[in-house]
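User: I'm writing a short methods note and want a consistent example. For CCE_0567 family metalloprotein, I'll paste the sequence; you return only the structure tokens, no commentary, since I'll be parsing the reply automatically.
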Amino acid sequence: MSETVDVDALKAEIKKLNAKATQAKMDLHDLSEELPTHWERIPEVARTAHDAHAALIAARARLAAASA
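Assistant:
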């Protein structure tokens, strides 16, 4: 039963991480359309997007391992 809870918890985490990664992607896209305005924010916004997607990919890998 604890495995089911873990998988359910991972699925919930992935849903949240997916929303966060999608928002980070949109923020990066919006920034790119504003260039050259706010060009100095590129590293910050890109790091946020990178970190959000890295966390999402890691959580998906944990889910795949737990489901195997």
